[in-house]
Amino acid sequence: MATTSDIRNGLCIRYNNDIYKIVEFLHVKPGKGPAFVRTKLKSVTNGKVIDNTFPAGRKIDDVRVETHKFQYLYNDGEFYHFMNEADYSQIRLLEAALDTPKLMKEGEIVTIIINSEDNMPLSVEMPMSVILEVTHTEPGIKGNTATNATKPATVETGAEVNVPLFINEGDKIKIETAKGTYQERIKE
């Protein structure tokens, strides 16, 4: 058993007969009244995100987990297939277990959180950023770069990201996986 002071991003807890992963949290100490912890929880079974407030000091039922490195192989529409780098065993997960499946390309190394009680995969953690190639974008208009103007671009995995006007097709860009936003152009 843990308490609200143990809450951190990525912690898996049992709540309302389901297992949730803490996506965001904020400890709040108002000037009047007791402290509390505001959280955003994502269900690892169906991907639904809920907001919840825990009073300070409340006991929470944390889930013991292990993390393993897996390589993303492919998806067959419904399932995403991964291979354990240590023993080459394969598992498949539903799209709901993934935070940003559109930013994963084949061969990507991810961390999968596994419940140590029943060896069920709970969620997939992407690297902080990924490097993807732009496959389609409209050409930028010369002289229109005085402001922070952006345009949509499609990357090799099919995801759409807003990029600055100077990005062209064939450029490799770094994308922050947590927000799905453009970070920088990669020079080769």
TrEMBL record:
InterPro entries (UniProt xref): Elong-fact-P_C, NA-bd_OB-fold, Rib_uL2_dom2, Transl_elong_fac_P/YeiP, Transl_elong_KOW-like, Transl_elong_P/YeiP_cen, Transl_elong_P/YeiP_CS, Transl_elongation_fac_P
Predominant place of localization: cytoplasm
Any GO CC annotation of this UniProt entry: cytosol
Gene Ontology BP annotations: peptide biosynthetic process
Record keywords: Cytoplasm, Elongation factor, Protein biosynthesis
Residues annotated as domain Elongation factor P C-terminal: 130-185
Entry annotated with the keyword Ribonucleoprotein: no
Domain Translation elongation factor P/YeiP central span(s) in chain numbering: 67-122
GO molecular function: translation elongation factor activity
Compartments where found: Cytoplasm
CDD domains, per database record: S1_EF-P_repeat_1, S1_EF-P_repeat_2
Residues forming coiled coils: none
Domain of life of the organism encoding this protein: Bacteria
Pathway recorded for this protein: Protein biosynthesis; polypeptide chain elongation
HAMAP family in the cross-refs: EF_P
Functional summary from the UniProt entry: Involved in peptide bond synthesis. Stimulates efficient translation and peptide-bond synthesis on native or reconstituted 70S ribosomes in vitro. Probably functions indirectly by altering the affinity of the ribosome for aminoacyl-tRNA, thus increasing their reactivity as acceptors for peptidyl transferase.
Record-stated family: Belongs to the elongation factor P family.
Name under which the protein is recorded: Elongation factor P
Organism: Polaribacter vadi
Lineage of producing organism: Bacteria, Pseudomonadati, Bacteroidota, Flavobacteriia, Flavobacteriales
Gene giving rise to this polypeptide: efp
